[in-house]
What does this fold into?
Amino acid sequence: MGKFYLLFICAGITGLFSSCSGNVIPPQAVLPVPNEHQLAWHELEQYAFVHFTTNTFTGKEWGYGDEQPAIFNPSAFDAEQWAKNIKEAGLKALILTCKHHDGFCLWQSKYTEHSVKNSPFMGGGGDVVKLVSDACRKYGLKFGIYLSPWDRNSAEYGSPEYVTYYRNQLRELLSNYGEICEVWFDGANGGDGFYGGAVEARKIDNAKYYDWANTHSIVRELAPAAIMFSDAGPDVRWCGNERGFAGETNWCTISIDTLFPGKPQTQKLLNRGDESGKSWVPAEVDVSIRPGWFYHESEDSKVKTPEKLFSIYMESVGRGANLLLNIPPDQRGLLHDNDIQALKDWKKLIDRTFAVNLAAKAKVKADSYRGKSKVYAAGNVNDGDRETYWATDDSVTSACLEIDLGKPQKVSYILIQEYIRLGQRVKSFNIEVWQDGGWKSVANGTTVGYKRIVGIPPTETQKLRINITDAKSCPVISNVEIY
Ligand code: FUL
It folds into this structure.
């Protein structure tokens, strides 16, 4: 049998392998996959929202648009106090409401008089966007902007001129405040308002009026690294509620053309994503630390407890979504003590819970790994390197990872991460612990994605099994941690 025939057998037997020398071909990506900017966004995991405008002084949640700029007068404004506390809470960025639905601008926009320039704040010379973005850089936070498409102050709202106005303002914000990590396009649109004195209801066709494609291209041009949020992306999507949870099943994939804003089934879809979605548009969970988005003194006693914030963390970051936690400054222009205390205690709770990774020194084995090559062996899930992963052969979509902690330990949380550069794959998994000489099932789950944290009743065990029971293609797991 000549060389040719030998080669043929080799290719036939190994199938997946590039040659007979043992170089095993890595798994092919399961499309769609995140781009570099989306990958960086996933790694942020949690960041702050800051709602601050005339509403802070009127007690409203949605200003009508007729507020006098004179009421915007924080008595002890200190953006560094925001940035310092947000940083210390473990949040990685800050997104500021530069203009909310009432139309009041927190910066010195050339295009309107309805802004800080006609307020007593710093004698009319202040620029909140500048002060906040500078404070963010000083404290090592990324900075993002919220610019409400709906504007209840503008006389032009509803006409094509307003869209030009909106884009001009977007250009100002993207050009003058350093690097922008995220641009937040709010979904609330149209309705009654002041509209330059017209005092009427104005309806717009959300799908057509803003001509989003051309607005998005301004962001791509001026801030290529910025992630764009809206109900339907393009880069990240709304999670379908403002109560702080992503779906227990949470696909980062969705088909944008299946989303119809406002429809209840759309909210469900946004919450869970779509296994066969055509685009990578992961969920962001926006929720306020208080009942309202803006500061109201009457809500000082209703700040979410550290325990509630922890469960929000588990149901957002712990389900592979990012958490956007709103902390609204008060009329002094400072974060309130109650909010700061809740943030501090929440951070302590997280740090205490995830202090010692029991998997770091564990022995890990798998019932199968790709091409029997070390490059894809089980040990990659606890080598501290996110770029290495355990993977199986393409035909293997259920597999078992066994983790031996060396001695019995109390286990409460299991953290799993897929190597999402190659797509989101896992459809279902379960977790077993070794107890009384046998395996006992303690949890079932569906998706994993960028990160999945599973809580179990605290259990004393030496060994655990993570069984991937179904996946779109071979599972590719980059990290496992146990607490
Ligand atoms: C909503 C807005 O209407 C709320 O006021 C808030 O800004 C929230 C984050 O988004 O659509």
